[in-house]
Amino acid sequence: MNSANPQTPPPLGSIGTNCLLADDVVSVWDLVIPPGEATGWHKHNHDYLFIVLTPGRVYTEYEDGTKEWQDNPAGHVERRPAEAVHRLVNAGSVEYRNIVVELKQKQ
pTM of the prediction? Predict the structure, then answer.
């Protein structure tokens, strides 16, 4: 929730830094987070996977304040279901980078 007003959800931003591809099947994002920074609050509307390119000490923060720490090596691939609103925070001292692939379902 927005710390200024707990009743107002944060505005949602992009999933990644740059969208590399978006079509009817997938959206592919390059995600770069400098040390001490975070993505905007966002939500995945589709199942997705991420591939760690440059490892770092990051955590996923959810609207309720819950934190999920991740310390994955380069090359780590993980698939996740569509999730609640969250952001990824780089708590490390080096730039973190991954590729996010949202798996869209055809109707």
Answer: 0.83
pLDDT digits (tens, 9 = 90+) for 60-79: 999 999 999 999 999 999 99
HEC profile for the chain? CCCCCCCCCCCCCCCCCEEEEECCCEEEEEEEECCCCECCCECCCCCEEEEEEECCCEEEEECCCCEEEECCCCCCEEEECCCCCEEEEECCCCCEEEEEEEECCCC
What CATH number is given for 18-103 in this structure? 2.60.120.10
